[in-house]
Amino acid sequence: MTDPMSFSSTSPRHALPLLFAGQSQKELTVNEAMVALDALLHPAIEAVVTSPPTAPANGQCWLVGTAATGVFAGQTDRIAAWSEGGWRFLAPREGMRAYDISSAAYRVYAGGSWLVPATPTAPTGGSVIDNQARAAISAMLTSLRAAGVLA
Q1: Is the sign of the CA dihedral 55, 57, 58, 61 positive or negative?
Q2: Contact, 124 vs 74, CB < 8 A?
Q3: Is 76 helix (H, G, I), strand (E, B) or coil?
Q4: Beta carbons of 45 and 81 less than 8 angstroms apart
Q5: What is the pTM of this model?
Q6: Which comes out higher in pLDDT, residue 4 or 119?
Q7: Residues 26, 19: contact at Cβ < 8 Å?
Q8: Taking the alpha carbons of 75, 73, 57, 85 in that order, is the dihedral positive or negative?
Q9: Rounded to an integer, what distance in angstroms lies between the CA atom of residue 24 and that of residue 6?
């Protein structure tokens, strides 16, 4: 006789709630998963904050900073998503990217923290000045900033 299949109660990557056969009030489980998916699919955060905003709009997300207070306490580096049901705290995964609206740049979750790629400085000085090379480097930096790759 084969062993019965067993399933966990959440998905493996983002801990989204899963349905079970015969489960009552399935809409609660499905709606909870949809709210999390809505925040995690192409995530965009308003800013990095340490305390909850006073009047969040439905669907807005923030990144919880260190030394957070109130309901954000203990949620460092999580995405805080506001919905009609209150705050949802979503754990990031290695390699996850989120667009930071306040700094107009992408943040990448790597090595246990959110990183913003450093912006290289435009070339200055030197004994040989190549105006064409400087113009090309400056144009690349401008393009990378416009694409949100660099802050």
Answers
A1: negative
A2: no
A3: coil
A4: no
A5: 0.70
A6: 119
A7: yes
A8: positive
A9: 19
